[in-house]
Amino acid sequence: MKKIWLALASMVLAFSVSAADITEGKQYNSLSKPVANAPDVVEFFSFYCPHCYQFSEVFKVNSTVEKNVPENTKVVRYHVDFLGKYGKDLTRAWAVAMALGVEDQVSPALFKAVQENQSINSVEDIRTTFINAGVKAEDYDSAINSFVVNSLVSQQENALADYQINGVPAMIVNGKYKIRNDKIDAKSPEEYAKAYSDIVNQLIAKK
Question: Can you list the domains of the chain with their CATH numbers?
C-alpha cells in the first residue's frame, strides 16, 4: 500500500499548472465521441483499483467534487466490471447501493474489504459487507435482483461502452471532457481534491 501511495503522490506532485489556467490537452481532453444527454459529472471506478481507493478514500476527490459543484448538478458514480474476479458482482452490488441510497455508507466498507482486508472471496462476502456497514439484510436481499437494480446494472454497463472507458479512476464532465488525473498541481491530498474540484466546476460552466 505504501508503494501505491508513493506512486500516486509522485504523480500528483509532478506537475505545476493551476486550475485557473486549464487547457485542453493539459488538464483535460475532449472525448472523440461526446455522450448525448449525459449527467453533468460521471466518475468511473472499481473497488479492485488501488488508485480508485486512493482517489476516494485518501484524496477524497469524489466527495470534494460533490460538495463543491453548483446546485442541481447531477453527479453519478459508476462501477466498472472489467477488473477483478467479482467485478460484475460488485457492479451489481453498487447498483444496490445506488437503489437504496447508501453509496456513502458502503463505499468505504467495500474499498476496505477489497483493498485492505482482501475479504471479498464470494458473493456472500459482498452481502456481508453491506450488512456490516449497516444495511438491513432484507433490504439488500429484496433489491439485489429487483427491476430497479437490473436497470442500474444496465445503465452502468451502457455508460462504460458509451464513454469507451478502459481505465479508472476516470471522471467526465458534460459528456465530453475527461479530466487528466496526473496534470493537477498539488502539495497534499486536500489541495489535489480542491484543484480537481475547481477544474470540474470550470468544465461544467464550459458546456
Answer: 28-205 (3.40.30.10)
